[in-house]
């Protein structure tokens, strides 16, 4: 069991083309037992952060602590951390039993019986008891993934690290393994840090999501917080599929105090409380999720706008409707019975409660 702290961590790689700042002044406190998921685009520093915690990468600046103890100078094998890699990293010539017990044989003074007891217990937990005498080469990708996770469980570590463990599996198996890994986490309660590209994985598995971009922390929060209250335009754009709509708008406040957001191709009248919240006239970025836009011919004109239907994509329960708003693409997610024709001009509205406003200079959230 462990609390994990990243205290102002920086990692700079020296490359032939010059220094690369992979992680910049990252601070994060992960309480014991939490399931944290790191997400962000390729190259944002997710794996490097994980590898610094595991001791596989040196730390340029800052301190990593486990249960309050600095571990910067502690060797990987003495950190009591187990890592599962995307490639599984199984030994091809050892059986599943041999692979799962290997780390324990080396790093502990447990006798063979105890090692085997733990291996069988972990194999049962992962549903791979009948594979124990097979070699990795004869296993499917999903089975190899289970062995790699089982090997981490056997070690009974203080912290589990997963680096894109499901990326090599097909979509259906990924979904299944997601549930399995969440179940393992609730059974064992071990602090877990999980890296993925896949935001659906992040949203469904995480207690808290950590969003990185360019080596910098963008937001830390529960799946609901990052979805409903994105801290900046990067998070707003990154989380959610299809992604949010963004419009440059000016807030114009009339002499009687009423406010109107004016964008290219639409105006939208807002409440006094919203005007108060953002502090009056100014340039903002308005964003709204596709599922918060409604096709509503009866919406009042000061709270709606007209758009031309470009494409309607049928995805089963819902339709994705791609719209043209004064030359800009806008995405709307509607129930399947809302199926306008391409070329139709429709009236689109949304609730003020669903809009987000960001400062146009800093791109930080205001509302
Ligand atoms: P991905 O999702 O593609 O795995 P990531 O978010 O895990 O990406 P990192 O692998 O942590 O990103 O890489 C962060 C940055 O550090 C990238 O710019 C990468 O090119 C650079 N980097 C990583 N490892 C090294 C290295 N050994 N030498 C030089 N640069 C490196």
TrEMBL record:
<dbReference type="GO" id="GO:0022857">
    <property type="term" value="F:transmembrane transporter activity"/>
</dbReference>
<dbReference type="InterPro" id="IPR008995">
    <property type="entry name" value="Mo/tungstate-bd_C_term_dom"/>
</dbReference>
<comment type="similarity">
    <text>Belongs to the ABC transporter superfamily. Carbohydrate uptake transporter-1 (CUT1) (TC 3.A.1.1) family.</text>
</comment>
<comment type="function">
    <text>Part of the ABC transporter complex XacGHIJK involved in the uptake of xylose and arabinose. Responsible for energy coupling to the transport system.</text>
</comment>
<keyword id="KW-0813">Transport</keyword>
<dbReference type="InterPro" id="IPR027417">
    <property type="entry name" value="P-loop_NTPase"/>
</dbReference>
<dbReference type="GO" id="GO:0005886">
    <property type="term" value="C:plasma membrane"/>
</dbReference>
<dbReference type="InterPro" id="IPR003439">
    <property type="entry name" value="ABC_transporter-like_ATP-bd"/>
</dbReference>
<feature type="domain" description="ABC transporter">
    <location>
        <begin position="4"/>
        <end position="239"/>
    </location>
</feature>
<keyword id="KW-0067">ATP-binding</keyword>
<dbReference type="InterPro" id="IPR047641">
    <property type="entry name" value="ABC_transpr_MalK/UgpC-like"/>
</dbReference>
<dbReference type="InterPro" id="IPR003593">
    <property type="entry name" value="AAA+_ATPase"/>
</dbReference>
<comment type="subunit">
    <text>The complex is composed of two ATP-binding proteins (XacJ and XacK), two transmembrane proteins (XacH and XacI) and a solute-binding protein (XacG).</text>
</comment>
<dbReference type="InterPro" id="IPR015855">
    <property type="entry name" value="ABC_transpr_MalK-like"/>
</dbReference>
<dbReference type="InterPro" id="IPR013611">
    <property type="entry name" value="Transp-assoc_OB_typ2"/>
</dbReference>
<dbReference type="InterPro" id="IPR012340">
    <property type="entry name" value="NA-bd_OB-fold"/>
</dbReference>
<dbReference type="Pfam" id="PF00005">
    <property type="entry name" value="ABC_tran"/>
</dbReference>
<protein>
    <recommendedName>
        <fullName>ABC-type D-xylose/L-arabinose transporter</fullName>
        <ecNumber>7.5.2.13</ecNumber>
    </recommendedName>
</protein>
<dbReference type="GO" id="GO:1902495">
    <property type="term" value="C:transmembrane transporter complex"/>
</dbReference>
<keyword id="KW-0547">Nucleotide-binding</keyword>
<dbReference type="Pfam" id="PF08402">
    <property type="entry name" value="TOBE_2"/>
</dbReference>
<dbReference type="GO" id="GO:0005524">
    <property type="term" value="F:ATP binding"/>
</dbReference>
């Amino acid at each position: 069991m462990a609390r994990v702290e990243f205290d102002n961590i920086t990692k700079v790689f020296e490359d032939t083309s010059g220094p690369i700042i992979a992680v910049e002044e990252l601070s994060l406190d992960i309480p014991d037992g939490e399931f944290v998921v790191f997400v962000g685009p390729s190259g944002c520093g997710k794996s490097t952060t994980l590898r610094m915690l595991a001791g596989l990468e040196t730390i340029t600046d800052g301190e990593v602590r486990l249960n309050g103890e600095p571990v910067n100078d502690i060797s990987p094998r003495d950190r009591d951390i187990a890592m599962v890699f995307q490639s599984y990293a199984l030994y091809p010539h050892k059986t599943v039993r041999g692979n799962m017990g290997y780390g324990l044989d080396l790093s502990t003074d447990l006798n063979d019986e105890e090692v085997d007891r733990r291996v069988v217990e972990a194999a049962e937990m992962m549903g791979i008891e009948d594979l124990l005498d097979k070699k990795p080469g004869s296993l499917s990708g999903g089975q190899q993934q289970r062995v790699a996770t089982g090997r981490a469980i056997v070690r009974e570590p203080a912290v589990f690290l997963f680096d894109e463990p499901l990326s090599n599996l097909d979509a259906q198996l990924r979904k299944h393994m997601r549930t399995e890994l969440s179940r393992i986490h609730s059974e064992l309660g071990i602090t877990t840090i999980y890296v993925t590209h896949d935001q659906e994985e992040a949203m469904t598995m995480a207690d808290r999501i950590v969003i990185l971009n360019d080596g910098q922390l963008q937001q830390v929060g529960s799946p609901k917080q990052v979805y409903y209250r994105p801290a900046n335009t990067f998070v707003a754009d990154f989380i959610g599929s299809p992604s949010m709509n963004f419009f440059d708008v000016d807030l114009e406040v009339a002499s009687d105090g009423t406010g109107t957001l004016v964008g290219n191709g639409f105006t939208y009248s807002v409440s006094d409380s919203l005007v108060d919240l953002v502090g009056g006239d100014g340039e903002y970025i308005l964003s709204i999720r596709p599922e918060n836009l409604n096709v509503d011919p009866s919406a009042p004109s000061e709270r709606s706008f007209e758009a031309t239907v470009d494409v309607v994509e049928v995805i089963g329960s819902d339709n994705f409707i791609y719209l043209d708003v004064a030359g800009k693409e806008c995405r709307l997610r509607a129930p399947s019975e809302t199926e306008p024709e391409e070329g139709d001009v429709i009236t689109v509205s949304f609730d003020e409660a669903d809009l987000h406003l960001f400062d146009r200079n800093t791109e930080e959230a205001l509302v």
